[in-house]
Amino acid sequence: MNYTKFSISDFRCFSQEQSLWFGIPVADKIGSGITYIVGSNSSGKTTLIEGLWINEQVKIRSSEKRTHSGPRFCLYDIDENLNREVSLLREDSYTLKEDPKVPPNELFEIISSRRHWQSTTAGEQLSSAVLDTTRELNPRNQQNNIATANILKDIEKDSEKYEQFTALVKRVIPEFTKWAVAYEENEYIEYTSSEGIKHKTDFLGDGVISIIRILAHLFEPRTSGIIIDEPELSLHPLAQKKLIKLIAEYAQNRQIIISTHSPYFVSWEYIQNGAVLNRVAKINDTSSKIYTIKDFNKYKKLTNGSNWQQPYLMDIVSREIFFQDNILFVEGQEDVGLLENELKDKDINFFGYGVRGIQNFEFAFQLAKDLGIKKACVLIDSPSDPAVGEENKVKEVLEKKFKSYKVVQWERTDIRDKPAQTKPAKEKLGYFTAKGIKKKDEELGDFYNKIEQIIDFFKN
After folding, report:
1. CA atoms 246, 250, 251, 256: torsion sign
2. Which of 153, 227, 327, 397 pairs with 118 at a CA distance of 20 to 30 A?
3. Is the per-residue pLDDT at 248 higher than 70?
4. Does one domain contain both 290 and 332?
5. Is pLDDT of 235 > 80?
């Protein structure tokens, strides 16, 4: 069962109804079924995950109600029809009811951020039954010592599954070799290192244990959705890159929700294929709002066309735009490098993003607005051809369309000196020499004034 969206209202930081939109799996479109949840700490990401899990066995606390009518949690099917609703029995009640209900196997499995599991097995519990228990436990309180060992025990019984699962883990951890169900006083999972040393999986690092737990969920042939909370924990960046590639492959056939603080897990490629990004942002101390990116076409000028030949636009730095609050957009990546020293010690949360062309500033501001980024600023050059005045026209459009953001314009035609490329083009004079060395103070003109304007905007 796939869903299009989940709505939450009158619960904790979500006083007004907010919608979490889901990616829909499409065969042959890698990453299409991924739903991203990003946002700062305490923005409401965990509350969203709890809302997806919550059921009629839960009692709502008085402090969790935001209005007299009380919380409401709704799941909508592929046609946006209401499929499941959890709400209070009555306005003055603290007891929940589910109406309509859905079968438990159509709800999301939850892999919370605490993923440690013990090596010892517990009876003959089948892997499917173990995975089902994750739908029953509160994701905020889960200790996550679910019987992962039983899942591995179940896999080991089938030689073909054993080889397939071992190969799956090796795609993320190449040194992962052999494992088996061993026995002392109890059955336990034994791991053989690349040096041939055998030991309990309890002695594996947290990152390896976490990967095995996540892949155990993916490996089981199921169609229900999965929620993975902070998959990046205890993982080296290279392992994060490998893991998201695997997750994206499985997301062609099932919905996978990823709540993350890591730009390694967010991919423009997957968003282009249908993945949806939801950014949870604090509006004030008590309320949060969800901003959604689900129409890639609105922003493809930032990543496609001639810009596609610029790999840094798709690299880890550019993806940090999803995780920042204060963004300074400049025309090129060299502007970022030259200005970084001027702004790094100014006690502001500065993130520079080269949009590669003044016509892309409008798309950049639109992306920032759609992400709920409170403060964004554009730093634009003066026209190289005053008769055309293209930069002035762009500035005018930006100031008219994005009144809450700021546009600052240099008095010079470039950040650094550049010789004329062709005749009758003129030499460009900037604030830095052609080699990127800042000029003497008396040669800098409006440089410090414009820098102060940017700093004041972000600080106030």
Report:
1. negative
2. 227
3. yes
4. no
5. yes
